[in-house]
Amino acid sequence: MTLVSIEGNLLLLAQPLLSSCPLALSSGCQNAPPDGSQTNLNRQSFASCLPNGEAEFLCLGLSIKVVGMAPAPPVVLTIAGFDPSSGAGISADIKTIAAHDCYGIACITALTVQSTRGVWQILPMDPKVIAATLDELASDFDIESVHIGMLANEDVVLAVAEFLTRRALPHVVLDPILKSSSGSALLDPGGIRRMVQQLFPVAEVVAPNLDEALALTRLPPAESGESTAQAVDHMREAARHLHAIGAANVVVTGGHLEKAIDLLSFTASRGVEQEVFKAERQKSTSTHGTGCAFSSALACHLAHGRGLPEAVLLSKAYISAAISNAHPLGHGTGPLHHLYRMNQPRRPTKIVSEAEQVHSRN
Ligand code: PXL
Fold first, then answer.
1. pTM (two decimals)
2. Cβ–ligand 1 contact at 23 (below 6 Å)
3. CATH code, 163
4. Is the CB of 68 inside a 6 Å radius of any atom of ligand 1?
């Protein structure tokens, strides 16, 4: 007997053949008569056979396996600046979102002139264009989570805050970007104030790096050469202050420290709980945009329905792998390999092995 697999929309093309077929159902269809007496196959009967995504039929001596389309990916909206070198910002976010089996949609807050060597110019977008873009996207897509990156200035913050407050979208992850790794300011002082006042309350998680956390809470900057234990104490204190100024849940990242440490500080029924995640620090020049990738990955895991501790753990593992798989690109601080998983062999699925059988027998 020959096995034929039909996937997704191909089903429609196969309708004429299948509808004239006497069927013997072997598996996967709860609704069909057990004696295989169903002889006429139409779209409805197919649909009713696919609650678990699969059904198998005998037809003219062929065993036909029907595999339903995979469910639609969660839609993740990223609101961020454009880095033309795609190490950080919106184009890096879209790669990260794709790497996490989500569908990325985007609203650009600012254009930048930059490369791996640094940021040279910033051109904030018109807040009216931002507001219109966000409303258009939100009326068209069911958004499962939102990632917020570079916001540039106060007017942009106000437009984004107005939208998020009105729409009350789920799982808002705020990366409160203040500066580029090369030291350029990516948010003006008025924007910083408004971000705390208006975006902290709508964010499920605020995910600054340690320097941003200290700056936002007006704590003294970390001294160079401090021990891992001292850095963790700093992170704990900064997280407590961030809760005090309105952040429900906080992840303070410290990838630049001696050990790559992240601190999750979240509000549980018993009060604030803190969990430390540690990894070895990698010696690499491919670290541009790690914050963007980490916070976008977090938004994806939340969109998939994972809890915060698991989302942090998985996002951290993703960043480590994206750094260790990165190619040295550009002449400065290069990008991660956001899509490193594309080069990894996929687990062979049943469908592939069945297709191979068809091939070898013909
Ligand atoms: O890595 C922070 C960042 C985020 N977003 C954009 C950037 C940068 C750093 O340069 O340009 C657009």
1. 0.81
2. no
3. 3.40.1190.20
4. no
